[in-house]
Automatic annotation (TrEMBL):
InterPro entries per record: CarboxyPept-like_regulatory (IPR008969)
Protein origin, superkingdom: Bacteria
Keywords: Membrane, Signal, Transmembrane, Transmembrane helix
TM stretches of this protein: 835-859
Signal peptide coordinates: 1-27
The name this protein goes by in its record: Bacterial Ig-like domain-containing protein
Length: 867
């Protein structure tokens, strides 16, 4: 009987075990099940979902989930398509027959299993909405992320012996053993408790978006450097790492700036501003590094554009300048008339758009701005209206000047009236009833006490760079305007006829061109960066008496044309303009250069207001030779005294149709062959004369008082009508007279009655002597006028200038050399004998008194406290 009872008892135990194995699974940290007390998640639209049903048999491993969850409203949910990365980050989709797919890693959501085995986060279904894990009710498992499990149960070869976990690794006594190191062998390595070793390149490092300062997306790329022994890492947006899990170390990782739980849960809102990402690196033994971080500014808002000073319309003669306000350092792109302009706003968000002059009519301008984060503004489209001032009259080349249609006095009347009005307004501002300083607020008055060098400098807005909309043909790889045969013939073509003729007339030039290898047309490129010097008339004829290395000291002196012998006159090259001054006693050497267009250009330099004698020899009989002095460009120094004068000159030019057209030859060229016309502003017209009928024509002109770049055009009208006309151009650079001045608060004050002496080096005595100016029809020394001006026209030699003036220190310039006939016009600053007294004005004295008074009170109060 007892035996039967024992058999029955054994049978009952076996049957019970079988039943339990059919309905229950033995759980572990590597193959977990759902806790019977914590098994519910909440769905917005269907209520509770049970992940721990008996028949659902949910399992969690390091790789995936399996089993079913149950909802009373939608039925069973299949979890077998959900993946696990080993650290609890779930991804993939669950399936419900009644509602479809459920995403366990949606944007702005996601589900993870933390180190406590709790499901946290949210999943998303298109039909039933969000499923929330966490809160008062939760889903919990006994599975744990690898980084939270003991070393002998984390599926990682922690001791790098190619054996993993219990029972495969002999260093593991059980699944709960925290070390895989074999205790029967040697002791633990010394490095077990060491922090990670810093990288060879420097410190531990994290870089957000390649160290960019701004970004317009919350998703960034992190570049990490944890050193050679970094095996794990933890990343957080808060710095306390409370929601961070350890994960395998990697050198690059995508990261969300507004996330938690190691970036797995993305918050719905992400505000613009500074965002910081923190990281720690771990060794294989779990030792952490110091915390390192990096910052980036999130900016998702598009910049705005504001035009400050747009006018209703603009004149055709004025530059179109717009002041723009937008975000700091934003790039501003403008598009108009098939052109693009680019400019960056300064640190105050300001920029200047200069569209230059435009043709009359309506123009469409489009402006966009891109900030530092890459956000683009809406396109600001505006219309610019350009109104014409006056029609420019174009005249045939034969007509040099056209008489005005209206009496001059009638046209000048409105200018005089406006000028008087401006002068009256200016005077009223100079002598106000109440000083302007007293009319300013107290804060403005206080600024007057601050010295200029202590005042912060305002940052000037950047100016725009203009780029054509259509790229040049060469860049487009469409440069096929010429056949290969044409290109070959051009490359091998000889020098232009004008250069060959010029080199025949000047043997020195011919020798130079041969020596430097300028033999064909393509060699002209070498001359674009250099200037050659053609000798003056006297030197060309071999009559110069001055040589620096000669033992005998002779002053160089030009010879007037009237004193040349018949043999010398025959040697004068034809069709070349020679320039002289001081009654032809000083020759100007001619600078020869090649322009960007590949054209030869002759140029001389002289001083404003001085006479200039011109000499030219005919090559064939002529009826007449006429000359024109043409303004090419002006150089007006814009001090406060000249703004009104410049405005008046511009208005006079607009009122009078004194523009005329010239062809654009190089040296001497037939007008009939020239198809290019240029508009020029003619200052004067003059005639060349040949009094002794020797074929050599001369003319004398007075150079303008305004310094600038001028062009002397000589037109040779031949007797033979088949030859037409020839033009010869000579560029003349007119420099201003030199002046003597002193400085007062950064302003220049001209010094009258200063004595300016020019000294010349005498090679016989080896001393400087007063330059004998009488031989050159000039004065030396000179006394400056009320404008403080002086000037000398001198021949070749070594010189220095001495300046004396009452109440000023004597000044001597450094010695300088004149290589050719040229003007001396150096601006010289004199120092007063007591110049240091001018540094201290009443504002600085008042500031010093205030500082001393404050120091006195401070010291007195300190002494009182001691006693």
């Amino acid at each position: 009987m007892k035996k039967d009872f024992k058999k029955s008892l054994v049978l009952i135990f076996l049957l019970t075990g079988f039943l339990m194995s059919a309905n229950f699974a033995f759980a572990s940290s590597t193959d977990g099940t759902i806790n019977s007390s914590n098994k519910y998640a909440w769905a917005e639209n269907i209520g509770w979902i049970n992940f721990g049903t008996i028949n659902g048999n949910v399992h969690i491993t390091d790789v995936s989930l399996s089993g079913y969850a149950l909802s009373e409203n939608i039925g069973w949910i299949n979890l077998s398509n959900i993946a696990n990365d080993g650290e609890g980050h779930l991804s993939g989709y669950a399936w419900s027959e009644n509602t479809g797919w459920i995403n366990f890693a949606p944007i702005n959501g996601g589900v993870i299993i933390n180190s406590a085995g709790e499901f946290i986060g949210s999943a998303l279904s298109e039909n039933i909405g969000w499923i929330i894990f966490g809160g008062d009710y939760k889903v919990k498992t006994d599975w744990r992320p690898r980084s939270a499990r003991p070393a002998c149960n984390n599926a990682i070869d922690d001791d790098e012996d190619n054996k993993i976990d219990y029972p495969n690794d002999p260093g593991c006594d059980s699944l709960n053993d925290t070390s895989e190191i074999d205790s029967s062998g040697s002791s633990l390595p010394i490095t077990v408790y060491n922090a990670p070793i810093q990288p060879e390149s420097g410190n531990f490092n994290i870089s957000i978006q390649n160290d960019a300062e701004y970004i317009n997306s919350r998703t960034v790329i992190l570049k990490l450097n944890g050193g050679a022994d970094a095996k794990k890492m933890a990343i957080s947006n808060t710095g306390d790492f409370l929601d961070a899990n350890q994960e395998n170390y990697q050198a690059q990782k995508e990261w969300d700036l507004c996330s938690k739980n190691s970036g797995f849960i993305k918050l719905p809102d992400c505000l613009d501003g500074v965002h910081t990402v923190y990281i720690k690196f771990y060794t294989q033994y779990g030792q952490p590094s110091t915390v390192v971080s990096d910052q980036i500014i999130l900016d998702t808002k598009s910049p705005e554009i504001k035009i400050i000073d747009k006018k209703d319309y603009y004149d055709i003669a004025q530059d179109i300048i717009l002041n723009i306000e937008t975000e700091t350092k934003a790039e501003i792109i403008s598009h108009w008339d098939k052109k693009y302009g680019s400019v960056y706003a300064n640190s105050q968000g300001k920029a200047i758009i200069n569209l230059n002059k435009m043709l009359a009519g309506k123009h469409q301008l489009e402006i966009t701005a891109t900030d530092l984060a890459g956000n683009k503004s809406k396109t600001l489209a505006i219309e610019l209206i350009i109104k014409p001032l006056i029609e420019i009259l174009k005249i045939e080349p034969d007509v040099i000047l056209k008489e005005p249609q209206q009496p001059i006095i009638e046209k000048i009347k409105p200018l005089i009236s406006e000028s008087l009005k401006l002068i009256k307004e200016e005077k009223s501002e100079v002598i106000p009833v109440v000083p302007k300083e007293l009319q300013k607020p107290i804060t403005e008055k206080a600024k007057l006490l601050i010295p200029e060098f202590l005042k912060p400098q305002e940052e000037k807005p950047n100016e725009m760079i203009i780029i054509p909309e259509e790229a040049p043909l060469l860049i487009q790889k469409q440069w096929k305007l010429f056949s290969e045969e044409s290109v070959k013939s051009f490359v091998l073509a000889p020098l232009p006829k004008e250069i060959i003729e010029l080199s025949e007339k000047f043997p020195e030039l011919k020798k130079t061109l041969n020596d430097v290898g300028i033999l064909k047309i393509t060699d002209l490129e070498k001359l674009k960066t250099v200037e050659l010097t053609l000798p003056g008339l006297t030197e060309r004829l071999g009559l110069s008496t001055y040589k620096i290395e000669s033992e005998k000291f002779d002053l160089p002196m030009g010879i007037p044309v009237s004193q040349l012998s018949l043999e010398n006159k025959k040697l004068i090259p034809s069709e070349i303009i020679f320039a002289k001054t001081s009654k032809e006693l000083i020759d100007f050497n001619i600078s020869l250069s090649v322009t960007e267009k590949g054209e030869l250009q002759q140029k001389i330099t002289t001083i404003s207001g001085k006479p200039l004698q011109l000499v030219i020899k005919q090559d064939k009989p002529v009826k007449s030779i006429k000359g024109y002095l043409i303004l090419k460009s002006r150089k007006i120094q814009k001090t406060s005294s000249f703004f009104f004068l410049e405005s008046a000159i511009n208005k006079i030019k607009n009122y009078f149709p004194i523009n005329f057209i010239f062809t654009n030859p190089v040296l001497a060229e037939s007008q009939k062959e020239s198809a290019i016309s240029e508009e020029r502003f003619a200052l004067s017209k003059f005639d060349y004369t040949d009094l002794d009928n020797d074929g050599i024509y001369t003319a004398e002109i007075q150079m303008p008082l305004v310094d600038g770049k001028y062009e002397i055009v000589t037109v040779m009208n031949y007797k033979d009508p088949t030859l037409g006309k020839k033009e010869i151009k000579l560029i003349t650079v007119v420099d201003p007279e030199g002046y003597i001045y002193a400085k007062d608060n950064e302003k220049e004050i001209r010094i009258p009655d200063a004595i300016v002496s020019m000294y010349l080096f005498n090679f016989e005595t080896k001393k400087y002597v007063l330059w004998p100016s009488q031989k050159y029809l000039q004065e030396n020394p000179q006394t400056t006028d009320f404008k403080g001006t002086y000037s000398f026209l001198v021949p070749t030699g070594f010189y220095y200038i001495n300046v004396k003036a009452p109440d000023y220190l004597v000044y001597n310039t450094k010695p300088f050399r004149i290589k050719e006939g040229s003007g001396i016009h150096i601006n010289i600053e004199l120092k007063t004998k007591y110049w240091w007294l001018k540094i201290i004005d009443w504002k600085i004295i008042l500031l010093i008194v205030i500082i001393l008074f404050l120091l006195y009170n401070f010291i007195r109060n300190k002494i009182k406290r001691k006693f």
